[in-house]
């Protein structure tokens, strides 16, 4: 394993490298819409249909249907009228409706039998995530994270991107974090976001709240970086157990997007309870714009998350709904690197 120098920051943006992986499932979701549901022909015949009526017709659940529609909007296949009604764009009508002479459905036929495409059909109907990467042991991603070998491999995956993401985030929140002392990094994985934050802001200490076995992985990683004095690991279940309360910043990095609305709201409510008035919540990850028209790389990544977890990439307005009515003042969304960004909010 290479030596890590968290003081050194990258000069380039890894977006292109990440996008190959982040968009891996998007073709299968579009393939499901075309091949299984002839979705675009239906929209053509029912121009202006509402989201709810669309879901009723196809018997789709809200979460996966929203991810599909966001992907179609971000791709420029559909648009929303001012009353929210869904219509096709020119490219959608000309190339994606089955009675058009330019219909490109047969181009997707080779992936008709892809397990991921088939999974999407059942996720749209049931709302339940598929097994992680079609593993046959029946465990979804959330359950798999309790397995030592899987947790190690997946934490490595998150850690490698987290070095640059964490460094950019730490730099971007400098003004907001200056007067704060103790950050709670909920579901913090290897602790890389805490490690990069305290390296950039040495006045700060951090606590990583993690479940077993990731908690032990985090302890070892933080120790390897020589940061055990500033970053501690608190072993707990974020839903069932109490959170430390002597904190004035809560970081939720790539966390809410793993969960459906009820669980995500539960996490935000626990963050509110943990923070004093004036405390800061930071939500970091891949975030859809307020209009749900993009960015395309985030809409593509959302199809992967929707397939393997109980969540999706939420939009700026959906995060506003989690925060504003629950006692937070929201600050504007900001980009960092690699199609990621963050929102902050202050507890009122
Ligand atoms: C997608 S990862 C994000 C890790 C890190 N925050 C990042 O940005 O890379 C979600 C993390 O939440 C943790 N997690 C999931 N359920 C949890 C629970 N009930 N209690 C504590 N941590 C949990 C997982 O172990 C995992 O490390």
Quick structural gist:
By secondary structure, this protein is of the alpha/beta class.
Structure description:
The protein is built from 16 helices and ten strands. It is of the alpha/beta class and 348 residues long. Residues 145, 158, 162, 187-189, 193, 210-211, 214, 237-239, 253-255, 258 line the site of S-adenosylmethionine.
Main traits of this protein?
2 domains, 348 residues, methyltransferase, Rossmann fold, 8-stranded mixed sheet, alpha/beta, two-stranded antiparallel sheet, 16 helices, transferase, globular, SAM-dependent_MTases_sf, binds S-adenosylmethionine, 10 strands, 45% helix
Point out poorly predicted stretches.
Answer: none
Q: What profile does the largest beta sheet have?
A: 8 strands, mixed
Structural class, by secondary structure, is alpha/beta
| Share in helix | 40-55%
In the CATH scheme, the class of the largest domain would be Alpha Beta
Give the number of domains.
2
Order of helices and strands: HHHHHEEHHHHHHEHEHEEHEHHEEE
CATH architecture of the largest domain: 3-Layer(aba) Sandwich
What is the strand content? Answer: 5-15%
In CATH, the topology of the largest domain is named: Rossmann fold
Question: Distance between termini?
Answer: 44 Å
